[in-house]
Amino acid sequence: MSEVHLVRQALRAVLSGQQRAAADHHRPAWHLAPPVGLMNDPNGFIHFNQRYVLCYQWNPLACAHGAKFWGQWSSDDLVNWRHEPLALAPSEPYESHGCYSGCAVDNQGELTVLYTGNVKFDDGSRTAWQCLATRDEHGEFHKHGPVLALPEGYTGHVRDPKVWQHDGLWYMVLGAQNLASEGKVLLFRSPDLHQWTSLGEIAGSHLNGLEAFGYMWECPDLFELDGSSVLVVCPQGLAAEARRWRNTFQSGYFCGTLDYPALQFRHGEFHELDHGFEFYAPQTCLSADGRRLLIGWMGIPDGDEFFQPTRDHGWMHIMTCPRELTLRDGRLVQQPARELQQLRRQEMHFTGSAQSLPALVIDSAELELTVSGSCELKFAGTLQLTVESEGLTLRRNNLRSGEPEERYWSGDVRTLRILCDRSSVEIFINEGEAVMSSRYFPSAEPQLRFYGAGQIGLRHWSLRQCVIE
Ligand code: FRU
Question: pTM for this structure?
Answer without folding.
Answer: 0.98
